[in-house]
């Protein structure tokens, strides 16, 4: 693994089903984020984590949950998918520290809920 | 919380012309302003950033300016080339309960015609 990896690349999911999007990084970044990208709305923050064991809610957290059991992994779970959750999902990470703010993004997961 | 507005939503220029994308932010405490380029089907990638103690930063054909008093910042691309065609996102940092997060603008689709 080099950088930040997301899986799956794309998925078609029936409404009401449960789905976990995976995100793994090998850069030892403490901070991790999940964004969704929708046309005309840019990137909106779903959940974030400052360090292993802590998580927080972003701008659009409803219908999503996250966990951060260790530094490397930050999975995003849709407990019961709905069509409005059709989107492209990006995971991102960054090193913490006052002078180091740049995000590194994963390649994204395109999710279609039908 | 922070709100970031970005204009224009689309921008068409001829190869060799300059392109300017403007963003405004609401939180005067924001201190970090990155710009991301996203090519079709790809992840956002950081192209340039500026911190609040700097008014302008240049990197070859791209530059960013920041006016803290007016709470706006701009991306300038000179001598545009077809490969500059992409969606560009501005962002501003916000600190919530001691944790830094980026709030993104809604994006500008830049089309550079040969």
Low-confidence stretches of chain A: none
Largest interface in this structure: A-B, 22 and 24 residues
Could you give the count of β-strands of chain A?
A: 11
Q: In DSSP terms, counting alpha (H) and pi (I) runs of 4 or more, how many helices of chain B?
A: 0
- Sum up the overall morphology of chain A in one term: globular
Mean pLDDT of chain B: 93
How much of the polypeptide of chain B forms β-strand, as a percent range?
A: over 45%
The biggest beta sheet of chain B is recorded as: 6 strands, mixed
Query: What's the pLDDT, averaged over the residues of chain A?
Result: 93
Structure report:
The complex is a heterodimer of chains A (114) and B (114). Chain A is mainly β. Chain A is built from no helices and eleven strands. Chain A has strands spanning 4-7, 10-13, 19-25, 31-38, 42-49, 56-57, 64-66, 76-78, 87-94, 104-105, 109-113. In chain A, strands 2, 4, 5, 6, 9, 10 and 11 form a seven-stranded mixed beta sheet that branches. A four-stranded antiparallel beta sheet of chain A has the order 1-3-8-7, with no helix packed on it. Chain A is globular, with a radius of gyration of 13 Å. The model of chain A has no long low-confidence stretch (mean pLDDT 93). Chain B is mainly β and 114 residues long. The termini of chain B are far apart. The mean pLDDT of chain B is 93. In chain B, strands 2, 4, 5, 9, 10 and 11 form a six-stranded mixed beta sheet that branches. Chain B has strands at residues 4-7, 10-14, 19-25, 32-38, 45-51, 56-59, 62-67, 72-77, 86-96, 99-104, 108-113. Classes of the chains: A mainly beta (114), B mainly beta (114).
């Amino acid at each position: 693994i080099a950088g930040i990896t997301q899986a799956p690349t794309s998925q078609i999911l029936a409404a009401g089903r449960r789905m976990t999007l995976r995100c793994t990084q090998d850069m030892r970044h403490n901070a991790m984020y999940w964004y969704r990208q929708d046309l005309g709305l840019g990137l909106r923050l779903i959940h974030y984590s400052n360090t292993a064991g802590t998580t927080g809610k972003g701008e659009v957290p409803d219908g999503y949950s996250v966990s951060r059991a260790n530094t490397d992994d930050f999975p995003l779970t849709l407990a019961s998918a709905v069509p409005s959750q059709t989107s492209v999902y990006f995971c991102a990470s960054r090193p913490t520290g006052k002078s180091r703010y740049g995000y590194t993004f994963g390649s994204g997961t395109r999710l279609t809920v039908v | 919380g922070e709100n970031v507005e970005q204009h224009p939503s689309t921008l068409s220029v001829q190869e060799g012309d300059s392109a300017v994308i403007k963003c405004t932010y609401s939180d005067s405490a924001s201190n970090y302003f990155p710009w991301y380029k996203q090519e079709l089907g790809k992840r956002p990638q950081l192209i340039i950033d500026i911190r609040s103690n700097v008014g302008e930063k240049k990197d070859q054909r791209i530059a960013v300016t920041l006016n803290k008093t007016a709470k706006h910042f701009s991306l300038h691309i000179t001598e545009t080339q077809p490969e500059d065609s992409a969606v560009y996102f501005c962002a501003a940092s916000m600190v919530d309960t001691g944790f830094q997060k980026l709030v993104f603008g809604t994006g500008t689709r830049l089309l550079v015609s040969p």
